[in-house]
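User: Fold this; C-alpha cells only.

Assistant: Input:
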Amino acid sequence: MLKLIQNEWMKLWHKKGTWAMVAMLILVILVPAGITKYYEVKSTDEGSWQNMEQQAIQSNKEMLANEELTAEDKVYFEEQIALSEYRLAHDAPSQTDSSLASFMSFTSNMIILVTLFTVITAASIVSSEFSTGTIKMLLTRPMSRAKVLTSKLLTTFLFGFLLFVVNVVVSAIVGFVLFGIGTGVELEIVNGQVAEKAVWSDLAYHYLLSGGDFVMSTLFAFLVGSVFRSSSLAIGLTMFLSFTGGMIVMFLSRYDIVKYIWLTHSDLTQYENGGGSMIADVTMPFSLTVLAIYAVIFLIISYTSFMKRDVTA
C-alpha cells in the first residue's frame, strides 16, 4: 500500500498543474497581504486609532437618533458604541488590519481554495487513468483494485492536507513579517457585556469546522470521477453544488427532506460562535451523523463502480 501511495504521489507532482495550484495558493495570500499593508500605512497616516474610535462613536450615535431604526439595528449600533468605548477606556486598539492573528483569520477563509484544488485532484486522479489508458498497466500489478483506489484516495487527502499546511504556514510567515504579533485585541458582546475574544482558539475551531465541506466535496468529486471517468464533470458538478448549495437548501427549507441532504450540513462553520443551522431542529451532532452516512455512501459507490468496471473496453 505504501508503495502505491508513493507512486501516486510522484505521479501527482510530475504534473505542472500541481505546482501551479501551490503557487496560486501562495500568490492569493501574498497579494491581499500587500494590499492590506498598504492601506494600513495609509490609515495610520490619516490619524490615530483613538480618533477613529471617537469618530465611530459619534457616527453610531447619529445613526441611533434615527427613529426609523428597527430594534435589531438599535441593538447593533449600541453594541458598536459599547465596543468603541471599551477600547478607549482600556487602551485596547483593534487588531482588525494590523496583526498576525487578524491576517490569519482573513486567510483562513481561503480554505475554499484549498478545497477547490483538492476537488480538482480528486476528480482527475482516477478519471485520468482511464482517459490515458494507463489504468490497464496499473491493474496488472499484484495489488487488488481496492488497494489501488484506496491509494488514490489517500494521496488526494494528503495533497489537500499539504495545501492546508501551506496556507497556514505561509499566512503565518507573511503575517508576522508584515504586521508582527500586534498589541491590540478583538472584542465581542457576550450576554450584553464586552469581552475579549479568544482569537487563536476561534481560528483553530474555524479551520476544524471548515473540514466538513472539504471532506464531503473531495469525496463527492472522487465519486463522480470514479463512476463517470470525467474529471470535468466531477469538478463542474462539485463546484456547482458548492456554490449553489445554500440556495438549494433555502429552496427546499419548507420540506422535511432538506434535513437529510448533505448540502444542508456540509458547511459546519454555521455552528461557529454559538450559531445554528437555518433549518429548525438541526444540531451539529445531527449534521455530523448525516455527513458520516453520506461519506460512507460515496465511498461504497466509488469502490463498487471501480472494482466492477471492465477496463479492457
